[in-house]
Design brief:
Elements lengths: L3 E3 L2 H7 L4 E6 L2 E6 L5 E6 L12 H14 L6 E8 L4 E7 L4 E2 H7 L6 H17 L2 E3 L7 E3 L5 E3 L5 E3 L6 H11 L3 H7 L6 H14 L2
Parallel strand pairs: 1-5
Antiparallel strand pairs: 2-3, 3-4, 4-6, 5-6, 7-9, 8-11, 9-10
Helix pairs in contact: 4-7
Length: about 210
């Protein structure tokens, strides 16, 4: 477990010295790649009363990383959690999951991977998540990584819930709808009428149920 530590503003500035901004929005920096190759993900602390006051997104990220690791699902490895009062931010410091997202790989050059095989692998992977009780609202090809070892894993995991048992059917269907929300993701999954993803998902689910 990683406690939420208070980080003084000067220490925060030192930590981010030489960092490269990976993502930012109108409120400021969101994700930094630090000089040592680790990442710092920043969460804006909202003033309105909400669940984030007692369960910050940085803590959710760390808890979800632990839940995934316990289920042998590749994901980022957390180094530490910080509250940065001077920047009105909470932060999670982590080692990134090595590899490229499926969306990056497909857009860069679809020929570098076995497309049909990858769709089948993805179907088994998502079915495995659901059988393991994982409900990931941000499930899309930009948050699924193909590692150098050929495994699939998850990133950007703050928006995830890990239950004790398999997901019920209505939550599985809803989560699959999340995966299909992006038009380009949906087009790749079912390009040319390919049913590899759907067939693999059903087969994996059936095999788990028969154990």
């Amino acid at each position: 477990m990683h406690p939420l530590q208070t980080l003084k503003h000067d220490d925060y500035l030192t930590l981010r010295t030489g960092a490269h901004v990976i993502e930012r929005d109108r409120h400021g920096d969101k994700v930094l790649r630090l000089a040592d190759g680790s990442y710092l993900k920043l969460f804006r602390r909202k003033r309105l009363i909400s669940s984030t006051a007692w369960y910050p997104y940085a803590k959710r990220f760390a808890d979800n990383a632990q839940a995934l690791a316990e289920r042998n699902i590749p994901c980022p490895r957390v180094i530490g959690l910080y509250r940065i009062p001077g920047a009105s931010r909470d932060a999670v410091h982590y080692h990134p999951l090595a590899g490229g997202t499926l969306r990056e790989l497909i857009r860069a050059n679809a020929n570098i991977v076995d497309i049909a095989g990858l769709r089948e692998q993805l179907g088994r992977f998502v079915a495995g998540l659901h059988e393991a009780g994982i409900y990931f609202r941000s499930l899309h090809l930009g948050n699924i990584v193909l590692t150098p070892e050929g495994e699939l894993g998850l990133i950007d995991i703050a928006d995830l819930r890990a239950g004790r048992g398999p997901l019920p059917q209505h939550r599985r269907r809803r989560n699959l709808q999340h995966l299909l929300r992006d038009e380009s993701d949906r087009a790749w999954l079912h390009a040319g009428g390919d049913t590899a993803f759907d067939a693999a998902y059903r087969q994996q689910t059936l095999e788990r149920a028969q154990r």
